Automatic annotation (TrEMBL):
The record marks T52, Y115 as: Part of a proton relay during catalysis. The active site is at Y141, K169. NCBIfam families: dapA (TIGR00674). Keywords: Amino-acid biosynthesis, Cytoplasm, Diaminopimelate biosynthesis, Lyase, Lysine biosynthesis, Schiff base. It is found in: Cytoplasm. This is 4-hydroxy-tetrahydrodipicolinate synthase. GO terms for molecular function: 4-hydroxy-tetrahydrodipicolinate synthase activity. Homotetramer; dimer of dimers. Pyruvate binds at T53, V209.
Length: 296
C-alpha cells in the first residue's frame, strides 16, 4: 500500500521483530498476528520487515521473503510494508530487493554497506545500482555507528537525484547534516532513533521508523500529530513522557528487549537466534519499569 495523502510510506512505522517458534523456526502465523496488532491496535502506518530488529543477520533469504509475504497478506491493504534488503554486497542486495518485490513489498530499506566500509564513491555506485534495478521506492538507512561508514552530505544529495531513492532512515545523530540534506533535496526523513523523532520533525522530517513503537505506537502517533497541529507544548510533553521507553529498549540490542517486552505483554514472539541472547532478569525488570514510567 502506497499512501495517497501525506508522506509516501506514512509517518509512524515500526521495525518489526521476527517471531520464532520453540525450535527457532520463523513463525509466520505469529508474524501476521503481530503485524495486525501493530497496525490495528497501535496505529502504525507501515512496518519495516527484516531489519536489524527483525534479526535479519540470522534469517535466510527464503525466510525473509516468506515473512514479507505473510505481513503483506495480513496488513498490506491498510499499511505500507517495507522490506529490509541491504547487505554489504551490491549483487546480493539487488537479488534480495527483487525477492521482496515479488513478495509484495511497497518499498525497500537499504542499509549502508557494513564491514567492508566502501568509500563515498562506492556508496554512490552501490545505491545507484540498486535503485536502477528496482521497481520499488528506496529508503536509505544511514547508521554509521553500526556500519562504520556515514553517507556524507554531498553523497546523500547526489543520490537524492535518483527518482527511486525517496527517503532516509536517519540514525546518524547529526541534525546539522540532516538539515543540509533536507534543504537541498525532497528526501523524506524518518528518525531512526526514537528519541530523535521530535527534533527531526522540527527541522523538516516526516516521521519515525521506530523500535520502542512496538509499545509506544499510540503515544508516538499522538506526538507526531500534536507537532503537525502546531501543539508544540503537547508534543514536548509526550516526548518527555515516552523518553524512558524510547531509550529503555536500547539498554541492549533492540531485538532482545523488544521481544522481552512483547512477552511481558502476552505476545508469543519466541526467542532469539544466536549470537543474540535472551534478556536477563535485571534487563526485564528495568524494561518493565521503563514501560511503567512511560505510561505503557
Amino acid at each position: 500500500m502506497i499512501f495517497t495523502e501525506g508522506p509516501l510510506f506514512g509517518r509512524l512505522l515500526t521495525a518489526m521483530v521476527t517471531p520464532f517458534d520453540k525450535d527457532l523456526a520463523v513463525d509466520l502465523g505469529v508474524a501476521a498476528d503481530l503485524a495486525r496488532y501493530l497496525v490495528d491496535d497501535l496505529g502504525n502506518d507501515g512496518l519495516v520487515i527484516n531489519g536489524t530488529t527483525g534479526e535479519a543477520p540470522t534469517t535466510t533469504d527464503e525466510e525473509k521473503a516468506a515473512v514479507v509475504a505473510a505481513v503483506v497478506a495480513a496488513v498490506g491493504d491498510r499499511a505500507s510494508v517495507l522490506a529490509g534488503v541491504g547487505t554489504f554486497d551490491t549483487r546480493h542486495t539487488v537479488d534480495a530487493l527483487q525477492a521482496a518485490r515479488q513478495a509484495g513489498a511497497d518499498g525497500a530499506l537499504v542499509v549502508t554497506p557494513y564491514y567492508n566500509r566502501p568509500p563515498q564513491s562506492g556508496l554512490i555506485r552501490h545505491f545507484t545500482a540498486i535503485a536502477d534495478a528496482s521497481e520499488l521506492p528506496i529508503m536509505i538507512y544511514d547508521i554509521p555507528k553500526r556500519t562504520g561508514t556515514p553517507v556524507e552530505t554531498p553523497t546523500m544529495i547526489e543520490l537524492a537525484a535518483h527518482p527511486r531513492i525517496v527517503a532516509v532512515k536517519d540514525a546518524k545523530g547529526d541534525l546539522s547534516a540532516s538539515s543540509e540534506v533536507l534543504a537541498a533535496t525532497d528526501l523524506l526523513y524518518y528518525a531512526g532513533d526514537d528519541a530523535m523523532t521530535l527534533p527531526l520533525l522540527a527541522i523538516g522530517g516526516v516521521g519515525v521508523v521506530g523500535t520502542s513503537t512496538h509499545f509506544s505506537g499510540r503515544g508516538m502517533k499522538q506526538l507526531i500529530q500534536a507537532f503537525l497541529d502546531g501543539k508544540n507544548d503537547e508534543a514536548s510533553r509526550l516526548h518527555q513522557q515516552l523518553m524512558p521507553i524510547f531509550t529503555g529498549v536500547f539498554a541492549t540490542q533492540g531485538c532482545i528487549l523488544v521481544k522481552a517486552g512483547l512477552a511481558l505483554q502476552g505476545h508469543a514472539v519466541g526467542g532469539l537466534r544466536s549470537p543474540m541472547v535472551e534478556a536477563t532478569d535485571q534487563q526485564r525488570a528495568a524494561l518493565q519499569q521503563a514501560l511503567s514510567t512511560a505510561g505503557l
